[in-house]
Amino acid sequence: MQSTVDGFSYGLVTPVVAFLMACLGGALGLRCATRPLVVAGSWRPGWLALGSAAIGSGIWTMHFIAMMGFTIESTPIHYDRLMTFSSLAVAVVMVGIGIFIVGYRGATGTALFTGGTITGLGIASMHYLGMASMSLDGQLEYNTFTVAASVTIAMAAATAALWAAAQAKGFLWSVGASVVMGLAVTGMHYTGMAALEVHVHGTAAPSTGESAATLLAPMMLGPLALLVLAGIVVIFDPLMITGRPGPAPVEHKPGIPAHPRRRSSPTRPTRLRLRARGPVEHRARTPQKR
Length: 290
Known about the structure:
Order of helices and strands: EHHHEEHHEEHHEEHHHH
Radius of gyration: 29 Å
Structural class: mainly alpha
Oligomer: single chain
């Protein structure tokens, strides 16, 4: 029989907190990912990897905070530990691929479209793999059209967030990019949940796995600690917040001055030539002693 699904058991508490976590992960991750564009001489692979981990952790944390408010009538919900961990790994890896593409190719044209698409697919993959980790006395069914709409929302919003973050034009652009990323994650999540139908078997058979309170609360400590670490890095790097470009690195090569020479005025070379010729002409006019 079809059972009643409630995604707002705690009212607006879980949606709001989940959205804020998605925005936080997006803000920290996007600032780390665009750090090489803001500050010259940055180690690009390391910053991109930290940004990918922050965004992936924010996505995963957002999803399971929202799932704490998800209940199904007449049946308890348990979660498989291995698949839950796998959903976090999928989010980090797929978001990382998209971030690295944009980080090395730039947020324009094909690179932006490819990176945003992969990042959006990473968000969607994490969501549906996390849903598959649920164990209950029933069967989950999805509306194909609504699922496609949720994936499209994730890809479009992720592309827009990457583009806005890559502009590196200041703090407001960073806030806007993080809000768009938060909308991408939460919009995709609740659109995907709207596509869900649950058919309860009614056999009262005990489901395997662990409850949300037992499994998810301890598991969130790791991603939350990573977000705190990324936040500390951003706070102690003011250029990442303001978005002002750093000084260009000076390239030292043998025989090449570190600073470019100033161009002299048009009259200066003439004066130098006259001074150089003076002693020569004077020596030429001096009679030689015999």
